[in-house]
Amino acid sequence: MIYLISYDLHRTKNYPVLHKTISDIGNCTKPLESLWLVESPLALLEINNIIKNAVDSDDCYYVVPIKEPGVGKLLSTDAWNWIRSKFGLAPSSMTLRLPAEK
Q1: CB-side neighbour CA atoms (13 Å) of 4
Q2: How many CB atoms lie within 10 A of CB 39?
Q3: What residue spans define the domains of the chain?
Q4: Cα 32 to Cα 49: distance, rounded to the nearest angstrom
Q5: How confident is the model at residue 90 (pLDDT cuts 50, 70, 90)?
Q6: pTM for this one?
Q7: Lowest mean pLDDT among 48-52, 76-80, 98-102
Q8: Cβ distance 29 to 45 under 8 Å?
Q9: 65, 1 in Cβ contact below 8 A?
């Protein structure tokens, strides 16, 4: 399963600890400053507990499983390549398509 993890650190901004914690959850990419995509066999609540133990009580975070690659403007080609590989898209394609409307 691929999860989107986003966070806001407030008073104490211990990014190295949180970044290490997230990267230890599974294969990941960090396409935006406070957003990660992580491929992991762990369940949603397991990931929640891991993140909860790595942040302070005044910090906020959000974890959600995703099933579509999404669209947007990311920081790096590496992030797009990671997304393409996880969702089975052609590596040479620079444009991701919106899923078909149902």
Answers
A1: 14
A2: 15
A3: 2-86
A4: 23
A5: confident
A6: 0.84
A7: 98-102
A8: no
A9: yes
Integer Cα distance of 89 and 96 in angstroms: 8
What are 26's two structure tokens? 């599974």
Alpha helix (H) residue ranges in 1-102: 15-25, 44-52, 77-86
Choose the CATH number for 2-86 among 3.40.50.1820, 1.10.760.10, 3.40.50.2300, 3.30.70.240: 3.30.70.240
CA angle 100, 28, 59 (to 5 degrees): 100
Strand order from edge to edge, sheet including 2-8: 27-32, 35-39, 2-8, 60-66
Report the C-alpha gap between 3 and 1 in whole angstroms: 6
Report the SS3 class of residue 66. strand
